[in-house]
Structures are given as structure tokens and as C-alpha cells.
Amino acid sequence: MTALSFDETGVDVVYNGTEFRLEKDLIEDAIQKSYPDVTDHEVLQIVEETPELSGEPRRIADIIDS
């Protein structure tokens, strides 16, 4: 299981027991969108080769504001 924790400057990730951080600039370069418009599903696709996506994708801006 992969855990994602979003904030204004990036995402803390726990993937297969390994913790690391994806910085905002890296995510923007990888997805080719501004950070607030990237979705949680898009970030998960950076981390996992074939993620199990469930539910509706949520924009990072909406996650941070909630």
C-alpha cells in the first residue's frame, strides 16, 4: 500500500515501507501541470507502475484546503 501526504511544497510518500518526498517542482515537471491542479491519482502513478486507482481523483489544491 502507498500512503501520500500532501502539503504546499510537495508530497511525503510511504511506498512498500520506504519513506521519501516528492518536491513540488519535480511533480510539476513530471505531470506538466501546475502543482495545485495535479491530482492524487497522477501522483500515485508517478510512484507506482500500475496503481489501483479508486474513487474520484482529487486536485492537490482541494486536498490541502480541506
Kindly summarize this structure in a few lines.
The protein is α+β, with helices and mostly antiparallel strands.
3D architecture notes:
With 66 residues, this protein is an alpha+beta fold. The chain has one domain (2-50). The protein has helices at 24-31, 40-47, 60-65; strands spanning 2-7, 10-15, 18-23. It has a 3-stranded antiparallel beta sheet. InterPro entries: DUF5800 (IPR043823). Pfam families: DUF5800.
Write the layout of secondary structure elements.
Blueprint lengths: L1 E6 L2 E6 L2 E6 H8 L8 H8 L12 H6 L1
Antiparallel strand pairs: 1-2, 2-3
InterPro entries: DUF5800
Pfam families: DUF5800
Features:
alpha+beta; 3 strands; three-stranded antiparallel sheet; globular; about 70 residues; single chain
Count of runs of 4 or more consecutive helical residues: 3
Order of helices and strands, N to C? EEEHHH
Q: In total, how many beta strands?
A: 3
Mean pLDDT: 95
Strand content is 25-35%
Number of domains: 1
What structural category characterises the helix and strand content? Answer: alpha+beta
Uncertain ranges: none
Q: Specify the biggest β-sheet.
A: 3 strands, antiparallel
End-to-end CA span: 23 Å
| Fraction of residues in helix | 25-40%
Please state the overall shape, judged from the principal axes of the Cα atoms. globular
> What Rg is obtained from the alpha carbons, in whole angstroms?
11 Å
Strand order of the largest sheet: 1-2-3
Pfam families: DUF5800
InterPro entries: DUF5800
